[in-house]
Amino acid sequence: MKKLLMRRKASDNIYYHPDFHSALNIAIDYLEKNHGKSAVKEYLQQFASSYYNPLTESIRKQGLSALKKYLKDLYKKENGDIDIVYSKDAMTVLIKRCPAILHIKKKGGRPAKSFSETTKTVYETILEGTEYEFKMLNYDKKTGRALLTFRRKK
Amino acid sequence: MISCTDFILAYNEFFKFLHERYGKKAVIDFWNYLSDKYLTDLRKLVKKHGIKGCWIYWSKTLNEEAANFTMELIEEKNQFKITMHHCPSKSRLLKTKHIEPYHDYCKHCDVLYRRILEPLGFEYTIDLSKSNKARCKIVVRQK
Questions:
Q1: CB spacing of A99 vs B5 below 8 angstroms
Q2: Domains: count for chain B
Q3: Which one of B6, B38, B73 has the shortest CB-CB distance to A22?
Q4: Considering Cα of B15, then A123, then B61, then A29, what sign does the dihedral take?
Q5: What is the span of the domain harbouring residue B70?
Q6: Record's superkingdom (chain B) (predicted)?
């Protein structure tokens, strides 16, 4: 009897499953349609304040350099394209190519209306309780191209 | 952007958020919705290839998720099996010490896949008795 068998260890592969961008997009869309835009923001605040708490702590201790390293690693891992202009008190990040939006569209999906909150609300929350503030200066919903600034509060 | 490698943590928090705000039914409703919208590739593959569609689908996803697993297909018996030795999602939750896993996290794998496979004429069983150790077993058989 013909039998196909596949045995894999975790170390045989690199953990990278871009379809999860589509799953998150569906979750955001679902939440907005069923419970409103405020629910999307509240969910992302809850997620970011709990999961990214170690990053917030690093920013408190090391300043924006911790966030710079995080962003560089993140977009490298996801094959994104960003430019960073960094100084101790301010950092500007131009996201030229958003891997999440690219993947969602490649799979035939449409980014949820509130999808930009996965950037805006998440970074606002990460910076809460630090000396820095975040602003998303522009965001193209079709491509995810965005200009972000992180600067020391006056 | 939330990295796709952080998705499992976002997903876990999503279940907790829905449950705390709107109750368990809201979580189940979301799983059903996600199954319909997200697992379209699995549905298409099983419709086209029968039980072998399961093999094709999970060959991609489990490798991309760097799972520790054994997968088996016996087409003549119309039987497909996954033995998950170490689930990448659950193990990530267990490893992330500052995050508490949603108490019924693994149940989503029961709801999502059952909803696709049973209407296509397959019996779907999942053994989650060792899910606290990130282990489980899935068997799909033609009815």
A1: no
A2: 1
A3: B38
A4: positive
A5: 4-142
A6: Bacteria
| Domains of chain A: residue spans and CATH | 18-152 (3.30.1380)
Q: Provide the shortest C-alpha distance from residue A88 to chain B (in Å).
A: 23
User: Which residues of chain B does A11 touch, with a Cβ-Cβ cutoff of 8 Å?
Assistant: 66
Contact call for A10 and B37, based on CB within 8 A: no
pLDDT tens for residues A62-77?
999 999 999 999 999 9
Domain containing residue B126: CATH number: 3.30.1380
User: What is the mean predicted confidence (pLDDT) over B119-140?
Assistant: 98
Distance from CA of B41 to the nearest CA of A (A): 10
Q: Do residues A117 and A28 lie in contact, with contact meaning Cβ atoms separated by under 8 Å? A: yes
% of chain A exceeding 90 in pLDDT: 95
Quick check: B90 pLDDT over 90?
Answer: yes
Give the residue among A115, A24, A25 at the shortest CA–CA distance from B10: A24
B90 C-beta neighbours (distance < 10 Å), count: 23
Averaged pLDDT score across all residues of chain B: 97
- Complex ipTM value: 0.94
Task: Tell me whether residues A21 and B7 touch, CB distance under 8 A.
Answer: yes
Torsion angle (degrees, nearest 10) of CA A78, A91, A136, A31: 40
Of B1, B7, B13, the CB nearest to A50: B13
A-to-B residue pairs, Cβ atoms closer than 8 angstroms = 143
> What confidence category does residue B81 fall into, taking pLDDT thresholds of 50, 70 and 90?
very high
- The per-residue pLDDT for A78 is 94
For chain A, the maximum distance between any two Cα atoms, rounded to a whole number of angstroms, is 73
